[in-house]
Amino acid sequence: MKTYLVTGGAGFIGSNYIHYMFKKYGNNIKIINVDALTYAGNPENLKEVENKDNYEFIRADICDKEAISKIFENNDIDRVVHFAAESHVDRSIRNPEVFVQTNVLGTAVMLNCAKSAWELEDGSFKPDKKFLHVSTDEVYGSLEEDGEYFYETTPYAPHSPYSASKAGSDMLVKAYMDTYHFPANITNCSNNYGPYQFPEKLIPLIINNALQGKNLPVYGDGKNVRDWLYVEDHAKAIDMVQEKGKLFETYNVGGHNEKQNIEIINIIIETLQEMLPENDPRKKLVSKDLITYVEDRKGHDRRYAIAPDKIKAEIGWEPEIMFKEGIRLTIQWFFENEDWMKNVTSGEYQKYYTDMYSGK
After folding, report:
1. N or C end of the chain, less CB within 10 A?
2. CA trace torsion 251, 255, 261, 264 (10° rounding)
3. How far is the first Cα of the chain from the last one, in angstroms, to the nearest whole number?
4. What is the pTM of this model?
5. DSSP label at 139?
6. Minimal CA–CA distance to 82: which of 19, 166, 140?
7. Which positions fall inside the NAD(P)-binding domain (predicted)?
8. Which of 257, 258, 256, 249 is nearest to 315 (CA)?
9. Does residue 359 carry a pLDDT above 70?
10. Catalytic sites, residue numbers
11. What total of structural domains would you count in the chain?
C-alpha cells in the first residue's frame, strides 16, 4: 500500500485530488493530508472521506520544519503531492510577503524533509519515492493574442507577486533535481474550476453573485483570456505524472478551453438561466444586466494558453471534460451544495474548524 503525503489537501484542487484518488484506488492507498487551514482550507471539503481508516488529517503549516519532519519520521511516505500554496493574485498584490513565506520557504521545507527521509548513505534515494510539485502557468508570464502557447521550454516571466513566488518554488524543485538528483516532477497547470472552489475565484464568484442578483465584476475590458481545466482532469494528470512520468521532467497540464473572462460570465449566466426551474425565484435575478466593469487588476496578464503536447505524447493524458460540460457539472454541484457555499461565504466553516483543532 502506497502512502501519499498531500499538502494543502483541504483546499480546492487538493480536496478534489483526494476524492479522485480514493475513487480510483479505494483502500489500496493511504493519504495523509497536511493543511494549515488558512481561509481557503476547509475540511468540510473532505467530509465524505474523513472517517476512512486509510485517511489522516494533520493540521500543520508547511513552513514548520519540526512538524513536517515528524510526519516523515512517523510514516513511510512513498509519494508527496505538494499543492499547498497561497494562490490568489489579488491577495498577493496586497500582501506579497505571505506568498513568499508559504510558496518559497514552505516548498524548501517540504523538499528538505523529503530529502532527509528518502536519502541513502551514498547520496542516492530509496527506490520508488516521488515528489510532485504542483505549479501554475502564470510563471510563464503573459501571451499576446496571436495564437502562441506556453511550452515546458518557455522562459519564466512572472508578473505578479503570486506568480513570482511560484516561479521561485519551481526553481527550488529544479535545483534539488539538478543538485541532488532528487526524485521529483513539476506540473504547471492552467486555470482550474469545479466543485469546492473558494468563491473569491472567478467562476464560483459569478455563480454565487448571479444567484443573489449581485453585481458581476469584470476587470478592465473583460477580454483577458484564460485556459480552463476541469479540476478532476487535473487530478487525473497528477496521478498519471507520478506513476508514468519521467523523473526530473516538467509537464504542462492544459485544458484546451481558452475563453475571455467576459465569455465565461456570459456562459455562466446563460447556463444558470437554462438550468434553473421556472418556479425558482432566482431565475429572475440572473441577468446580464448585473455585469459591472471595474478598474483592471495591477499587472493583469492578458492571455494564458498551455500546450499540453508533452504530457499527451509521453503519458497519454489529455483533458476529457470540455467547458460546456464542465460548467454544467460545476453549477449542478453548487445547486446541490448550497449549505457549503453559505458556510464558506459567511466564514462559519473557519470558526467551527478553528475551534475543533484548537481543542475548544
Report:
1. C
2. -160
3. 35
4. 0.93
5. G
6. 166
7. 5-329
8. 249
9. no
10. 137-138, 162
11. 1
DSSP string, 170-233: HHHHHHHHHHH---EEEEEE-EEESTT--TTSHHHHHHHHHHTT--EEEETTS--EEEEEEHHH
Cell of residue 127, nine digits: 527506490
Q: CA 340 to CA 143: how far, in whole Å?
A: 36
Of 356, 221, 234, the closest CA to residue 297 belongs to 221
Q: pLDDT band at residue 348, thresholds of 50, 70 and 90?
A: low
Question: Quick one: DSSP state of residue 238?
Answer: H
Q: Which residue has the cell 473572462?
A: 261
Query: What local confidence, expressed as pLDDT, does residue 360 receive?
Result: 41
Residue 243 lies in a domain: yes
Tens of pLDDT, residue by residue over 265-323, are 999 999 999 999 999 999 999 999 999 999 988 878 889 999 999 999 999 999 999 99
For 220-283, list the strands marked E by DSSP.
Answer: 225-230, 250-253, 258-260
- Residue length of the chain: 360
Flag whether 175 is in a domain.
Answer: yes
Banded pLDDT at 49 (limits 50, 70, 90): very high
- CATH assignment of the domain containing 171: 3.40.50.720
236's grid cell = 487525473
**Average pLDDT, integer, range 81-109:** 90
Q: Is 208 within the bounds of a domain?
A: yes
Which cell numbers in the block locate residue 38?
A: 488558512
For the cut 60, the answer to whether the pLDDT of residue 355 exceeds it is no
Grid cell in block for residue 8: 494543502
pLDDT at position 356: 44
Tell me the residue range of the domain where 134 lies: 2-353
Q: Give the pairing type, strands 2-7 and 29-35.
A: parallel
Q: How far apart are CA 10 and CA 344, in angstroms?
A: 13
* Angstrom distance (rounded) from CA 21 to CA 16: 9
Please report the pLDDT score of residue 353 as a whole number: 42
From the list 208, 309, 224, 305, the residue with the least C-alpha distance to 261 is 224
> What average pLDDT does range 335-360 have in this prediction?
67
Tracing cell 510532485 back to the chain, one arrives at: 132
